[in-house]
Amino acid sequence: MTDAIRAEGLVKEFKGERALDGVDLTARTGAVLGVLGPNGSGKTTTVRILSTLLRPDGGHATVGGFDVVRQPHEVRRQIGLTGQYAAVDAELTGTQNLVLIARLLGFDRAQARARATELLERFELSDAGGRPAKTYSGGMRRRLDLAASLVGRPALLYLDEPTTGLDPHSRNGMWAVVRDLVSDGVTVLLTTQYLEEADQLADDIMVLDHGRVISQGTPEELKNQAGDQVLELRTVDSGQLPLATKIIEAVTSAPVHSDGLVANVPVNDVAVLPEVVRRLDEQGVAVGELSLRKPSLDEVFLALTGHSAEAPDTDDAPEGARP
Q: What is the dihedral of CA 13, 14, 20, 25, to 10 degrees?
């Protein structure tokens, strides 16, 4: 399988601070590359460079075989972009939004109308096509925004945190749409803060933190770095949690994280669970909840970097540097 996107040593600075510090990236044709990281990690800056909205200060990148700096027009013909926030015109109807974009891309009137109808049907928006976009729910707007990015039938699609702010039902619907696009041969670059989203959709994952790639691999390889699963315990009496924590540490031989209400620890052997239960019972610890689950994004980051996935709730680039 050939590479749809290749980037080497990408550097971008804003006011003397590096948003990207030597990022290498490869996205295979027909696959989904998930770029995982908290706000401020460099995800959106990477997308802006690969979509020719920003010029890198160092390194180089090709998209569909075209250089993002020397051949920006050719790159733009290859890609569709859906940003973090719906970019549709709220005053126009769903149909008008899509027709407008099609006309700007060179479709004649009949072609534009036909493409709009096709996309509205695909994204289950036909019944709302005649309504202004401002009357749409958040999930509907995101679907319309994604439809708009597909008007020109791009070979590569950039999805920059496409499910931010969506409820679980709308998020699942967006995931289904992405899977359909990939089955049609579209290459997807997906940025997200959600490990679950990357796990559901990505063939490959790279993790960014403070502008640097700190890990990459398949979803399973990534999660294994934080332990196969996480054992989580809540005691009926929070005063017994310190004792429960000591018991879990003795059984797992691993440091346990506790916030005073819940204790959790990564485990690679599920056989520790019955032993933990036995010792808790022996010590008279009343268990409120005890479970094994997949690691969360924060736990993956903690395992990879030694710190949690906390970051300012701002974008990568300073306000004045945004295109």
A: -90
